[in-house]
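Notebook, bench 3.
Goal today: get a predicted structure for 4-aminobutyrate--2-oxoglutarate transaminase from Shewanella salipaludis so we can plan the truncation constructs. The sequence was checked against the plasmid map this morning, with no discrepancies at the termini. Length recorded as 425 residues. Pasting the sequence as submitted so the record is complete.
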Amino acid sequence: MATTNDSLMARRQAAVACGVGQIHPIFTARAENATVWDVEGREYIDFAGGIAVLNTGHLHPKVKAAVAAQLDNFSHTCFMVLGYESYVQVCEKLNQLVPGEFAKKSALFNSGSEAVENAVKVARAYTKRAGVIAFTSGYHGRTMAALALTGKVAPYSKGMGLMQANVFRAQYPCALHGVSDDDAMASIERIFKNDAEPSDIAAIILEPVQGEGGFYVASPGFMQRLRALCDREGIMLIADEVQTGAGRTGTFFAMEQMGVAADITCFAKSIAGGFPLSGITGRARVMDAIGPGGLGGTYGGSPLACAAALAVIEVFEEEQLLARAKTLGLRLKTALTKLQDSFPQLAEVRGLGAMVAVELLADGKPAPQYCAEILAEARARGLILLSCGTYGNVLRILVPLTAPDEQVDRGLAILGDCLGAVLKP
């Protein structure tokens, strides 16, 4: 009996916990660059990139070769038991790439959630404070401490009870929904008046461009005001660049475009081209606030993932992918903005570099029903898309930076056809 998407979905439903979601009822057989083939042989253009993990595409030849070469040597020792040079090399590279004209140190882990939780651990150890300020609609992961920082209940913490205390929520600036930079700063001051003194706050954490929250972009002015506040009050500024990092926004880290540097930067996703690797890079004196044994993990900084990360960084340099992110982003925004002329439901096209999204509204209100229909229609036509946003009413595009223009344009044409089928101008 032939293996089909339907047969695998039936097996999945019987074997896999229902809490593990799956956006598309498709099972992958193979993939290359920005193309995926399912188990039935159907071809798709990938505008999802494994949720921002594949900036260098599926199985970039250089990444594939680097991992294969590492496999000829060893796959694991646990860096905390027996070290290896590639871990040190990755830390050296990140110390150079992360913004900030100060001495830096890094530590490597597996997932974005681990990076976030360890950043908070470091900030608490350095400041001797417990409180953290996060933002509405922010997404920082699904583990318990990261989940407390994540500003969206359903589906991430629904039914799990209240998350840990000492997290306070400020407003993230969003002009489309009436939250100005002044409003956002005032919401932090309200926390200081109503909930916790500045001297109780260890860190303020935010995404320079919100990912799951809807691709809202913080302005350089807002980020500079946050930096000044943190400097004044002795608070650590943590930039969660798990989704924005590794070149997606046109600079290796989005904070390079904000005019300030964070005290601690979190990275993951595309840093290793599809292999599990995350980490934090911060001021050396801050990072050293935790002594030996306080940071780490059995698989953190895997030799295979470190080999992949070093290859990814080389690919960015050799193929000029930062410049590509800017031109690709312009291509995407131009096409989507043109579609706004035909579809008034496309309320706003936004993003930074090639991290691009469009928000759908109906009568001025979020329209998640349109997003769900567009995703299904696009899948039927051979295009994989993602939605995001607090209300699920934002279409996001995270196509590999290595995708050729012709394929990107075909994907955009399919999207235009889908809008016509669903929105019917």
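Residues 74-318 form a domain with the Aspartate Aminotransferase; domain 2 fold (CATH 3.40.640.10). DSSP finds 13 helices and 16 strands in the chain.
Flagging this for group meeting.
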